[in-house]
Amino acid sequence: MTVPTGRRERKKAATRQKIADTALRLFLERGYDAVGIREVAAEADVAVTTLFSHFASKEALVFEQDADFEQGLTRAVTARAPHEPLVPALRREIHAMVRHCTADGAAPIRRMIDESPALREYEDSMRLRHAESLAAAIAADPALARSTTACRTIARFVIDAYSIGREAADPEAAVDEIFRMIEAAWETVSPSA
């Protein structure tokens, strides 16, 4: 998460983090479905309206780094060094995301997501949104000059690389293997005229 600079922004970020941490603790202690929004707000000592000003839904509380992940993916495209190839930049970002989501302590969160239809559905919609944002960033870069279809396809492959890598016995090796295929696919697509 980017560090806010002003006092007001820091306070908002601290409140957001407190709400997310409280929600996750309650969800893991009692189960996602057993905890309501009002309970999270009360435990975090904020109004329900404050909670909803930071999180659009109960599901969003579990995926509190959603925006950071999405921005990281688009930054991998837009902030890469001049003439740096696209695929290695995306590979680095996916490796970072997989490391974060397979770190110590992540397994109970993953189990909670896997056990909840609402969370799985939210995660699926989040992945599609991330893929569309990534595709738009790729398409907007004139140096990459590929068709919209090619940009959308590669973006989906990249998002799937995260999902598959996260679930693999050796996440790092899995991501590298997938990215060899992504790179081969990207190289076969002719630049747009």
Task: Lay out the secondary structure.
Blueprint: H1 7-30, H2 37-44, H3 48-54, H4 58-62, H5 66-78, H6 86-101, H7 107-115, H8 117-140, H9 148-167, H10 171-188
Helix pairs in contact: 1-2, 5-6, 5-8, 6-9, 6-10, 7-8, 8-9, 9-10
What does this protein structure show overall?
With 193 residues, this protein is mainly alpha-helical. Helices cover 75% and strands 0% of the residues. The protein contains 10 helices and no strands. The protein has helices at 7-30, 37-44, 48-54, 58-62, 66-78, 86-101, 107-115, 117-140, 148-167, 171-188. Helix 1 (7-30) crosses helix 2, helix 5 (66-78) runs antiparallel to helix 6 and helix 7 (107-115) crosses helix 8.
Radius of gyration: 18 Å
Q: What is the overall shape?
A: globular
Q: What is the overall pLDDT average?
A: 92
The level of helicity is: over 70%
Strand content is under 5%
Main β sheet profile = none
What string, H for helix and E for strand, traces the elements in order? HHHHHHHHHH
Tally of DSSP β-strands: 0
The number of distinct helices, counting runs of at least 4 residues, comes to 10
What is the first-to-last residue Cα distance? 38 Å
